[in-house]
Amino acid sequence: MCAKTEEEKLFLPWADIEPHVARWHREGIEYLSKIWPSLSERKAANDTWGDEVESQLVRFDKDSHEVHLVLEQKEVLSCIDSNAPEGTFDPEFAQYMVETSPREPYISTVSSLLEVQGNLEARRAKVNRLLPKNEKLMTLSVFPLLGIESPIDTRNNQHVDSYDNAISDGPYSFAKDNIEARAKRGTSIEVPVYQDVCTTLPKMMELKHILYGPGACGLQATFQCKTLTEARSLHDQFIVLGPIFLALTAATPIYQGVLVDTDARWNQTAAAVDDRPEHEFGRLYPRWSTAPMYLSKQRDIGDSGLNSDLINVLRQDTNFLESHGMDSAMAQYFAYLHLHDPLYLNATRGRHEHVTPEDVHRSICESVWSHVRLKVPEPNAADQGWRVEFRPMEVQFTDFDNAAFLIFLDLVRQVLAWMGPKLDFYMPLELVRENMDRAHARDAVVKQKFWFPGHVVQDTSSGEGVKLNNHGPDIPEWTVDEIINGRTKGDAAFPGLLPLVERYLKEKMGQDSEQLHPYLDLIRRRANGQDVTPAHWMRSFVHCHPTYERDSRISQRACYDMLQEAERMRIHASSGSNSSPGSIGN
């Protein structure tokens, strides 16, 4: 069966897509080659940016001391005007999720950055005003009891009988069905269980529904660049920084009511949406994965990050795109994207003959979810530039914390633009992938080391910037504290991302930038361990709760109390509170 969208079009099931994918791939590549001349020269007037915050609708039952997800997305969104001044409010994968974004993009000024926290708070408050007093919009990564009790359907106040019924309509339900149909298997996600002194659970637990992936929430930021060249450079720099931000924001220590031995959701989400049949393993990266390659023109094509076998598979499409004006790196990148099949396509009356090459190209670009993603401008949106989406961050409990990471990320972007080629974080992509895995470990932010090209061969005090020795075989391993706050001892030294930001603020932004210090202090403390991640805080709360029996299992009462406390922390950290802004601390 096909479901109607607002445009009165119908989504195609995989059975109607599969017979036509070979032709559609060719047509999609040809369509891209035709629009490329104008897109490649697209220029944006400003380097603006915005955020996307995914949240969950949660109900607290004071009498029973229980907490549940509620499927109230449609009702909430139907009450919000599409031109609401607070921001934009959109559906997400599950009916208990809402995604919000600022109405107007931010710019790179102190005054604009100081609006971020207030805007996050206003968007949350907009939704909370529409909810009963015992319900809240919470910025949770994964609801701790998802899989123990199904969400509540507010139309009948009953738990849904199938998790499939918690998935949102339209492309989301079809994505779920088409992923499973293309892979020829159901969802299976393996997560290591935290082994406490009384744990009797197996060492690995299996999660068997897609909701454990895209039904989780993240914190994303998208940066519009003035030119494609700038976007490619930012894309490459962000690739290396992604695992560091994942470790800093880790917020997922519990699945299905069980403490697990990881702190982040990225790999679990990748497994949930992996549509590769067995013969594609080892040939094609998952849709949700580390970015597949570097894009800068300055990079030798052999340094792009793609393995030689995959380069050979892409050769025909790469050569075709090069013959139509693309340089080798961009031709390889788009050939790689188009190696994936379109997951969701909608067309008039649901007929495949109404699918256009533009539909295919757009579907593919929108359904390959790398940790850093280059976003193609709409051909008919002349004022839209090339954008870079940064996707690995985990969402934090409080708007203050979310604002801190968004502000810091934008300031790092400004520093990268300011210093240009003097600050180049390139290193082999296999080390970035290893860093992404390390970022999942318990307390990775303070206990793990990460490959990082931090050999400083020129001191910043000279005013000529930093030059990194990142092309040799001896890339060192660093703690997050050293990467963020700096390292001055030993054979290698690096001033640190935060000191570089502070130097930039002092030289370029002036005294007003001091108002940003509370946010930067959070980053400093999170990196050096003075402030803990949400994942660490949740573990500690569970361990100290009177209902915890050291068996790795989380009770309803413990979850209720934990999320109540998370709400109190959010209110305490709000800009309108009488107390000073802060985070979860120790």
From TrEMBL:
Record carries keyword Protein biosynthesis: no
Enzyme Commission number(s): 6.3.2.2
Pathway(s) of this molecule: Sulfur metabolism; glutathione biosynthesis; glutathione from L-cysteine and L-glutamate: step 1/2
Domain of life: Eukaryota
Reaction equation(s) it catalyzes: L-cysteine + L-glutamate + ATP = gamma-L-glutamyl-L-cysteine + ADP + phosphate + H(+)
InterPro entries according to UniProt: GCS, Gln_synth/guanido_kin_cat_dom
Family, similarity comment: Belongs to the glutamate--cysteine ligase type 3 family.
Name by which UniProt lists this protein: Glutamate--cysteine ligase
PANTHER family assigned to the protein according to its UniProt record, in alphabetical order: GLUTAMATE CYSTEINE LIGASE (PTHR11164), GLUTAMATE--CYSTEINE LIGASE CATALYTIC SUBUNIT (PTHR11164:SF0)
GO biological process, alphabetically ordered: glutathione biosynthetic process
Species of the source: Rhizodiscina lignyota
Pfam families: GCS
Keywords carried by this UniProt record: ATP-binding, Glutathione biosynthesis, Ligase, Nucleotide-binding
Phylogenetic placement of the source organism: Eukaryota, Fungi, Dikarya, Ascomycota, Pezizomycotina
Molecular function terms, GO-annotated: ATP binding; glutamate-cysteine ligase activity
